[in-house]
Amino acid sequence: MSQTNFDVAALRSFVTGMDLGSFAKAADRVGRSTSAVSAQIRKLEEQVGAPLFRKAGRGLGLTDAGEVMLRYARRLVELNDEAVVAARGTDLEGWVRLGLQEDFGESLLPGVLGRFARAHPKVRIEARVARNADLTERLDAGELDLALVWDDLNLSLQARRAAGASIEVAKPPLHWIGSDALQWSPDSGEPLPLVLFDGGCMLCSLATDALDRAGIAWRVALTSPSLAGLWAAAAAGLGMTVRTPYGLPSTVRTLDPADYGLPPLPSLGLSLLRASSAATAPVEQLATIVVEAVRGYAGVGAEGASIAA
Predict the structure, then answer these.
(1) In this structure, are 12 and 80 located in the same domain?
(2) Do residues 37 and 21 both lie within one domain?
(3) ∠ CA 248-251-252 to the nearest 5 degrees?
């Protein structure tokens, strides 16, 4: 019996299409025509022996076979890229200092650092998990080489991008986060209880500004210096909080604002900043891996990809 050998290029097109929500956009990303990418996807379905897609509204969702294939495709593409980097960078040495948000500390950091360490065992990595202001201050002070931060107009991101010191990684939606233990309802006449970071938080400020514009009363039920504290308080029903889907634990869930009479929330850009002096090969390699990992993060991928749009 002959073995089935998947084409890594086809797997990459499949993964990219699902991440971008469009195989036409994926064609641009992978440098192929839309018809060539469509042919790759048809070939994958033939090799799997089952449909990968089903109708989902105006787009296409994944079948059970498609969900399984997407998980393996990510792993195969990552392993392929890891092998290429490892083979080409066996002599890479140096030091990289990476800073990122708490949202990625448990969900993303171990996989990224493990993948990088396997490919470049001679490179040492120092990682810091902190909030936006701290990360950008340390980056500007020369204490970090890379920082994954939420976009903030005060960061002069356009100037950084023009100088090649910033990469726009993703633009995930903000969500109201809570649990079934929450007792508040719009009919209660009580202000909406919120659980917030202490010392100020850009994401929370966007939420409270939206509530103020909608004329919805709110109160601070609890503040915490850590994201884990916000998750625990929201899970216990003490109030709602606001985050993106990154790193969302199973104890809480995203809430439909219409169910609670709340205003919708905007999307928030996420960028990888690089210190002006950090243009070494190890820094560039880690930056590539971080960007790929965030863009392919499970749970924040495309919903209903389109072959033609």
Answers:
(1) yes
(2) yes
(3) 60
Question: What is the pLDDT, as a whole number, of residue 67?
Answer: 92
Residue ranges of alpha helices (H) inside 237-280 are 257-260
The CATH number of residue 151's host domain is: 3.40.190.10
* Separation between Cα atoms, residue 125 and residue 97, nearest integer Å: 6
The residues of the chain scoring below 50 in pLDDT are 162-163, 298-309
Its domain, for residue 227, covers: 175-260
Query: From CA 118, how far away is CA 86, in angstroms rounded?
Result: 8
Report residue 130 CA to chain centroid gap. Answer: 16
Nearest residue to 278 via CA among 164, 169, 168, 161: 164
How many domains does the chain divide into?
A: 3
153 in the same domain as 275 = yes
pLDDT at residue 89, as a whole number: 57
Residue type at position 263: P
CATH number at residue 67: 1.10.10.10
